[in-house]
From TrEMBL:
Residues 32-274 form the DNA methylase N-4/N-6 domain. It comes from the Bacteria. Belongs to the N(4)/N(6)-methyltransferase family. Its EC number is 2.1.1.-. Keywords: Methyltransferase, Transferase. This is Methyltransferase. The lineage of its organism: Bacteria, Bacillati, Actinomycetota, Actinomycetes, Micrococcales. SUPFAM superfamilies: S-adenosyl-L-methionine-dependent methyltransferases.
Amino acid sequence: MTDTVWAPDGSNLVVHADNAEYLPTLPDGAFTLIYVDPPFNTGRVQRRQETRMVLNAGGEGDRVGFKGRSYDTIKGALHSYDDAFSDYWSFLEPRLVEAWRLLADDGTLYLHLDYREVHYAKVMLDAIFGRECFLNEIIWAYDYGARAKYRWPTKHDNILVYVKNPAKYHFDSAEVDREPYMAPGLVTPAKRELGKLPTDVWWHTIVSPTGKEKTGYPTQKPEGLIRRVVAASSRPGDWCLDFFAGSGTLGAVAAKLDRRFVCVDQNQAAVDVMAKRLAAKAQFTAFPPDPGA
């Protein structure tokens, strides 16, 4: 059996790792909620450093792996490539297959993308999960940044929602924050005070450049957005996973709502941000374990 630093009765975790290497160490059905906000397919030139681990028989390598074995990290070629469809989806598909495996029977996946890729992603997730497991497409609408003059300005992201089992998934609308009625005079005082359940179009501002929530991480998502996801699709004590964790918003919200979490990211800058944001809420580790950490 493969060793893992995660345990169902263990601590919250922030893991500095390549998620393609780390996710297979986790057991089937471990998570009630998985939120994934991968890098978007932008069409820009990206760079990827090849690395491989080589067993060091003398025990003097720069990393320690399973059962205390010592490894040397060997850097290979630094490749430049167009962030085109084939490269992007060959990168993302195996990770989404892992997400399906890791979801509990009552679990839900939220995949956060933009308008360029959401249509292809739905076809892919229909194949992985089954079309009957598609629950929603959420539109996160915002109004910031420059406005294009040569086409309709794009001011939204897309979040695809899939469930592991359409007969057993958890969804609690009573726990979701409410919105004010647009015509409050047409509803009863009790309904007006309670507010209405959000639809699948969520108007929510970005993280304020001067607000206390801001971490400085460039793709940080607002806690209010993730709070709806966590509140609706998990219960206190449930495990939540984000394997493109970025600034750690999923972890921050999960901790506030009494959920448990695992946040994974390969980017050192992201781990540094989470080290400050989640220092009192999680244990930090590397995979494979780094003897210098």
